[in-house]
Amino acid sequence: MNQVALRFAEPNEKRKIYEWLALSDVTSQMFDDDNPPETWENFNRDESDFLFDHSAPELGGYLIITLGGEEMGAISYACFHLIDKVAELDIWMRSFKYCGLGYGVDALNQLIDKLHREQGIKEFIIRPSKENVAAIRAYKKCGFTLFEDFDPRNYVKEEFYDMYGDGDYGLGGDITLIRRYNI
Ligand SMILES: CC(C)(COP(=O)(O)OP(=O)(O)OC[C@H]1O[C@@H](n2cnc3c(N)ncnc32)[C@H](O)[C@@H]1OP(=O)(O)O)[C@@H](O)C(=O)NCCC(=O)NCCS
Fold it and tell me: How far, in Å, CA of 156 to CA of 128, rounded?
Protein backbone atom coordinates (compact mmCIF):
# COMPACT_ATOMS: atom_id res chain seq x y z
CA MET A 1 0.00 0.00 0.00
CA ASN A 2 1.24 3.49 -0.79
CA GLN A 3 1.89 5.66 2.21
CA VAL A 4 -0.15 8.80 2.64
CA ALA A 5 1.49 12.17 3.20
CA LEU A 6 0.48 14.73 5.82
CA ARG A 7 0.81 18.49 5.47
CA PHE A 8 -0.33 21.24 7.81
CA ALA A 9 -3.61 22.84 6.76
CA GLU A 10 -3.76 26.53 5.90
CA PRO A 11 -6.23 29.06 7.34
CA ASN A 12 -8.15 29.22 4.04
CA GLU A 13 -8.82 25.46 4.27
CA LYS A 14 -10.95 25.65 7.43
CA ARG A 15 -14.27 25.82 5.58
CA LYS A 16 -13.33 22.91 3.32
CA ILE A 17 -12.35 20.76 6.30
CA TYR A 18 -15.68 21.62 7.93
CA GLU A 19 -17.55 20.57 4.79
CA TRP A 20 -15.74 17.19 4.77
CA LEU A 21 -16.89 16.75 8.38
CA ALA A 22 -20.45 18.00 8.24
CA LEU A 23 -21.60 18.05 4.61
CA SER A 24 -20.04 15.01 2.93
CA ASP A 25 -21.11 11.40 2.46
CA VAL A 26 -19.04 10.31 5.51
CA THR A 27 -21.00 12.69 7.77
CA SER A 28 -23.58 9.96 8.35
CA GLN A 29 -20.88 7.68 9.79
CA MET A 30 -20.19 10.18 12.57
CA PHE A 31 -23.51 11.93 13.17
CA ASP A 32 -27.26 11.35 13.04
CA ASP A 33 -30.45 13.23 13.82
CA ASP A 34 -29.95 12.78 17.57
CA ASN A 35 -26.36 13.94 17.32
CA PRO A 36 -26.08 16.33 14.38
CA PRO A 37 -22.79 17.90 13.34
CA GLU A 38 -22.07 21.36 14.64
CA THR A 39 -22.88 24.38 12.52
CA TRP A 40 -20.22 26.17 10.50
CA GLU A 41 -20.59 29.18 12.80
CA ASN A 42 -19.77 27.09 15.88
CA PHE A 43 -16.95 25.19 14.16
CA ASN A 44 -15.43 28.43 12.93
CA ARG A 45 -15.64 29.93 16.42
CA ASP A 46 -14.45 26.89 18.39
CA GLU A 47 -11.64 25.61 16.14
CA SER A 48 -9.14 28.34 16.95
CA ASP A 49 -7.03 30.01 14.30
CA PHE A 50 -3.81 28.62 15.80
CA LEU A 51 -4.95 25.17 14.68
CA PHE A 52 -4.68 26.36 11.07
CA ASP A 53 -1.86 28.93 11.00
CA HIS A 54 0.98 26.84 12.54
CA SER A 55 1.58 29.50 15.19
CA ALA A 56 1.44 27.07 18.14
CA PRO A 57 2.20 23.51 17.02
CA GLU A 58 2.72 22.50 20.64
CA LEU A 59 -0.98 23.22 21.23
CA GLY A 60 -2.51 21.47 18.23
CA GLY A 61 -3.16 21.60 14.51
CA TYR A 62 -5.05 20.32 11.51
CA LEU A 63 -3.29 18.40 8.76
CA ILE A 64 -4.47 17.38 5.30
CA ILE A 65 -4.04 13.73 4.30
CA THR A 66 -2.89 13.36 0.71
CA LEU A 67 -1.85 10.56 -1.61
CA GLY A 68 -0.08 11.36 -4.86
CA GLY A 69 -1.13 14.98 -4.44
CA GLU A 70 -4.82 14.08 -4.06
CA GLU A 71 -6.52 15.30 -0.88
CA MET A 72 -8.21 12.45 0.97
CA GLY A 73 -9.19 13.88 4.34
CA ALA A 74 -8.17 15.69 7.49
CA ILE A 75 -6.56 14.68 10.77
CA SER A 76 -6.16 16.84 13.84
CA TYR A 77 -4.49 16.85 17.21
CA ALA A 78 -5.09 19.02 20.23
CA CYS A 79 -3.06 19.32 23.42
CA PHE A 80 -4.04 22.78 24.70
CA HIS A 81 -6.97 21.47 26.79
CA LEU A 82 -5.21 18.40 28.21
CA ILE A 83 -2.60 17.61 30.82
CA ASP A 84 1.04 17.55 29.75
CA LYS A 85 2.24 14.99 27.17
CA VAL A 86 -1.26 13.95 26.08
CA ALA A 87 -2.92 14.67 22.73
CA GLU A 88 -6.48 14.14 21.54
CA LEU A 89 -6.81 13.07 17.90
CA ASP A 90 -9.61 13.22 15.37
CA ILE A 91 -9.77 12.17 11.73
CA TRP A 92 -12.18 12.08 8.83
CA MET A 93 -11.65 11.10 5.22
CA ARG A 94 -13.57 13.35 2.82
CA SER A 95 -15.48 10.58 1.06
CA PHE A 96 -16.30 6.91 1.53
CA LYS A 97 -14.24 6.23 -1.58
CA TYR A 98 -11.14 6.84 0.57
CA CYS A 99 -12.34 4.69 3.50
CA GLY A 100 -11.66 1.02 4.18
CA LEU A 101 -8.28 1.18 2.42
CA GLY A 102 -6.09 1.60 5.48
CA TYR A 103 -5.20 5.21 4.71
CA GLY A 104 -6.76 6.51 7.92
CA VAL A 105 -4.74 4.07 10.01
CA ASP A 106 -1.59 5.05 8.11
CA ALA A 107 -2.27 8.76 8.76
CA LEU A 108 -2.86 8.11 12.46
CA ASN A 109 0.36 6.11 12.77
CA GLN A 110 2.35 8.84 11.06
CA LEU A 111 0.90 11.64 13.16
CA ILE A 112 1.39 9.71 16.40
CA ASP A 113 5.03 8.97 15.54
CA LYS A 114 5.64 12.61 14.62
CA LEU A 115 4.09 14.00 17.81
CA HIS A 116 5.99 11.54 19.94
CA ARG A 117 9.26 12.30 18.18
CA GLU A 118 8.90 16.08 18.01
CA GLN A 119 6.91 16.88 21.13
CA GLY A 120 7.39 13.91 23.42
CA ILE A 121 3.67 13.12 23.53
CA LYS A 122 3.18 9.86 25.36
CA GLU A 123 -0.55 9.26 25.44
CA PHE A 124 -3.00 9.64 22.59
CA ILE A 125 -6.74 9.56 23.14
CA ILE A 126 -9.53 9.46 20.61
CA ARG A 127 -13.23 9.67 21.39
CA PRO A 128 -15.48 8.42 18.55
CA SER A 129 -19.22 8.01 18.78
CA LYS A 130 -19.93 4.63 20.33
CA GLU A 131 -22.07 3.91 17.23
CA ASN A 132 -19.10 4.35 14.87
CA VAL A 133 -18.09 0.70 14.69
CA ALA A 134 -15.88 1.13 11.60
CA ALA A 135 -13.85 3.89 13.24
CA ILE A 136 -13.44 1.92 16.47
CA ARG A 137 -12.23 -1.07 14.44
CA ALA A 138 -9.73 1.10 12.59
CA TYR A 139 -8.41 2.60 15.83
CA LYS A 140 -7.88 -0.85 17.33
CA LYS A 141 -5.91 -1.82 14.21
CA CYS A 142 -3.81 1.24 14.91
CA GLY A 143 -2.89 0.03 18.39
CA PHE A 144 -5.54 1.85 20.41
CA THR A 145 -7.29 -0.02 23.20
CA LEU A 146 -10.53 0.71 24.98
CA PHE A 147 -10.04 3.01 27.96
CA GLU A 148 -12.99 1.70 29.95
CA ASP A 149 -12.48 3.75 33.10
CA PHE A 150 -11.50 6.97 31.34
CA ASP A 151 -12.28 9.90 33.60
CA PRO A 152 -11.97 13.21 31.76
CA ARG A 153 -11.26 14.95 35.08
CA ASN A 154 -7.88 13.24 35.07
CA TYR A 155 -7.05 14.40 31.55
CA VAL A 156 -8.89 17.63 30.70
CA LYS A 157 -7.60 20.81 32.34
CA GLU A 158 -10.09 22.31 34.74
CA GLU A 159 -10.57 25.54 32.77
CA PHE A 160 -11.52 23.54 29.67
CA TYR A 161 -13.62 20.94 31.41
CA ASP A 162 -17.04 22.49 30.70
CA MET A 163 -16.28 22.76 27.00
CA TYR A 164 -14.31 19.58 26.33
CA GLY A 165 -14.95 17.24 29.28
CA ASP A 166 -17.76 15.31 27.61
CA GLY A 167 -16.25 15.03 24.11
CA ASP A 168 -18.03 15.69 20.81
CA TYR A 169 -20.92 13.26 21.35
CA GLY A 170 -22.05 14.30 24.81
CA LEU A 171 -22.00 12.37 28.04
CA GLY A 172 -22.27 8.64 27.31
CA GLY A 173 -22.37 9.17 23.52
CA ASP A 174 -18.77 8.28 22.88
CA ILE A 175 -16.18 5.77 23.90
CA THR A 176 -12.56 6.58 24.65
CA LEU A 177 -9.62 4.70 23.21
CA ILE A 178 -6.01 5.25 24.16
CA ARG A 179 -2.62 4.46 22.71
CA ARG A 180 0.27 4.75 25.12
CA TYR A 181 3.64 5.35 23.56
CA ASN A 182 6.66 3.90 25.34
CA ILE A 183 5.58 4.79 28.84
C1 LIG B 1 -12.55 6.11 10.56
C2 LIG B 1 -11.55 6.20 9.42
C3 LIG B 1 -10.62 7.36 9.65
C4 LIG B 1 -10.72 4.89 9.41
O5 LIG B 1 -9.76 4.97 8.41
P6 LIG B 1 -9.73 3.82 7.25
O7 LIG B 1 -8.56 4.10 6.45
O8 LIG B 1 -11.05 3.81 6.58
O9 LIG B 1 -9.54 2.52 8.13
P10 LIG B 1 -9.59 1.03 7.61
O11 LIG B 1 -9.22 0.95 6.18
O12 LIG B 1 -8.83 0.25 8.60
O13 LIG B 1 -11.13 0.64 7.71
C14 LIG B 1 -11.78 0.66 8.92
C15 LIG B 1 -13.13 0.00 8.75
O16 LIG B 1 -13.92 0.80 7.88
C17 LIG B 1 -14.92 -0.04 7.29
N18 LIG B 1 -14.99 0.19 5.86
C19 LIG B 1 -14.45 -0.58 4.89
N20 LIG B 1 -14.74 -0.09 3.70
C21 LIG B 1 -15.48 0.99 3.89
C22 LIG B 1 -16.09 1.92 3.03
N23 LIG B 1 -15.99 1.86 1.72
N24 LIG B 1 -16.78 2.89 3.59
C25 LIG B 1 -16.90 2.98 4.92
N26 LIG B 1 -16.34 2.16 5.79
C27 LIG B 1 -15.64 1.16 5.27
C28 LIG B 1 -14.57 -1.45 7.59
O29 LIG B 1 -15.42 -1.88 8.62
C30 LIG B 1 -13.15 -1.35 8.09
O31 LIG B 1 -12.84 -2.34 9.01
P32 LIG B 1 -12.33 -3.79 8.48
O33 LIG B 1 -11.24 -3.53 7.48
O34 LIG B 1 -11.83 -4.44 9.71
O35 LIG B 1 -13.51 -4.44 7.88
C36 LIG B 1 -12.24 6.39 8.04
O37 LIG B 1 -12.99 5.23 7.74
C38 LIG B 1 -13.15 7.59 8.01
O39 LIG B 1 -12.69 8.69 7.80
N40 LIG B 1 -14.47 7.38 8.18
C41 LIG B 1 -15.44 8.47 8.08
C42 LIG B 1 -15.27 9.53 9.17
C43 LIG B 1 -15.19 8.93 10.55
O44 LIG B 1 -15.99 8.11 10.95
N45 LIG B 1 -14.22 9.45 11.33
C46 LIG B 1 -14.01 9.03 12.70
C47 LIG B 1 -14.38 10.11 13.63
S48 LIG B 1 -14.08 9.61 15.32
Answer: 17
